[in-house]
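Hi R.,

Here's the chain you asked about this morning:
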Amino acid sequence: MKSQITIKKIQDLLIKGLQTVYVNDDTSRRMWWASLEVIQKDFLSKNYKQGGIWVASPLPAFNDKKFLNQLHGWLWSPEGFPYFQNENAGFLPVNNTDKIKKDFELVSNYKVLNLCQEDGYEPFLMIITPNFQCILSIAGEKDKKILLMKCDEESLKLSIELMHAKLNQENYEEGVKFRNAINNLGNLNINNQFEQLFWPILSAKLASIAPNRNIQNSVKNDEKKVQITEAKLLRAISHEVRTPLATIRTLISSTLKKYKMDESMKNRLIQIDNECNEQIDRFGLIFNAAELVSNEVTSLNNLAKINLAEIFKKLSPLWNKQLNRRGISLKIDIPNQLPQILSDSEKLELMLSGLIDKNTRGLKEGSTLILELRPAGQKLKLELKIQKLERNQKEILKKDIGSDIGPVLNWNPQTGSLQLSQNATQKLLASLGGHVTKRRDTGLTVFFPISDSK
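And the predicted structure, written out as tokens:
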């Protein structure tokens, strides 16, 4: 029986015998984004029109639509990233039909396959065109990474054959398409000068990212630019996720009103509608956090007096329904006549739903979520507690074993759970007037400022 071909195995073979300098995770990320910009701007832009193929993991590496539209691709993406699935592409709700067609062609020009744990989660990109070819990847252990760039004939041949074998193992039909696409390119013109040009251009790019006055300022400014770039990309993705889901909800609503159907079919459509609505809210929250990180909004803007207890009463039926589907109970403990707080009502509603989702992920059936509001001096204290139903004891929340991917998201590869990072959660709550603390025994505590009684 043949051994399984994984992306990590391909990376390991390419790095074998390579002598290089190791860098930490943050530096490798900066090098990766700078390398992508150099490759697209200085090399691929001159060679993509003849057609070609690309293979990437765990995200599409291109930021220009013309490359995605012109080149055929294969993307290995984690199951936690469903927004890359092609079936959503035809539901983009825009008025211009030509743009719908163009966007559909953009998304459907690459095949999405499931990334397994054995593949690893380090970025990988292979580009093959008649006159330009390269393999780019980050490899190594935590804070001991290297930027891998290969363009020699031996490495290209090895990677093409292994990718073909991987596709054959996982999806034979796509393996045939991949081999046909490679054959259609004919004899490849290996550009031996590319490597000699790439590294000096990349060095110049990295050197120009930050001012020369101070090394520490250089690093901080560089990291901030990377964060803003990633946040803007995430905002765009969040928008593209929510729009087709909103269209699906509209179609479901229309179908339920227009057609008669049996109860089981009706319940299925309602369940799909509920799931779509939850995902719209989740990505709306991600959009708000990305907007804040990219400095598109100012902290503490548009804060007004609101009644937090009323918000809880308004949203508790929805929270109850969502938690009951997972076998989790909700208990709300709110005394009468609580003071008003200063916050943004619309965004706070989204944030509260996000906190409940984030802090109940992975809970066993039979658990209880307790939401408690209490005055605390000049602040109003919100506590989220988890309680085991059978023993009536507080359950220590499981430590988040996920890892931050960029400035906004935290992703757990074992469960596929995609949530706001702790840092993004704190920043978003701060912009809404809140201050968050997480304690081992009680889960989560948020303090909101009480508005003036005038």
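DSSP finds twelve helices and 17 strands in the chain.

Let me know if you need anything else.
M.
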